[in-house]
Amino acid sequence: MNKKEWLQIIEVVAGFALLQGAVGILHEFTGWLGWGLIERIGFLDGHEVYGSVALIVFAFAVFAAVEAQRKN
Fold first, then answer.
1. Mean of the per-residue pLDDT values of the chain
2. How far apart are CA 16 and CA 20, in angstroms?
3. Cα–Cα distance measured from residue 35 to residue 32, given in angstroms and rounded to the nearest whole number
4. With CB atoms 3.0 to 4.6 Å apart as the test, which of 7, 13, 14, 47 could cross-link to 59 if both were Cys?
């Protein structure tokens, strides 16, 4: 696999993290979409919002890193 393919795979993983973070926040504030992974992680009980925000921040950081690698 070349560099371009790896960067695409990493972007897909970051997109999944962004989606899970958004679903976690939506579920905590509205009760909708209870299929996210954050509420299934046991040690995050009571701290799901923080975990969701951390996933969103992680996803944006990964997107920025991928974009920086593409410019090299």
1. 92
2. 6
3. 9
4. 14
Place of tokens 């090299």: 72
Look up residue 37 and give its two tokens: 């992974």
Q: How many CB atoms lie within 10 A of CB 24?
A: 26
Query: How far apart (Å, rounded) are the C-alpha atoms in residues 40 and 46?
Result: 11
pTM, two decimal places: 0.88
Query: Most distant CA pair in the chain: distance in Å?
Result: 43
Q: Give the torsion through C-alpha atoms of 2, 8, 13, 17, to 10 deg.
A: 150
Specify the higher pLDDT residue, 40 or 12. 12
Say if CB 51 and CB 41 are below 8 A apart.
yes
Q: Is 14 exposed, middle or buried (0-12, 13-18, 19+ CB in 10 A)?
A: buried
Name the residue with tokens 């790896």: 6
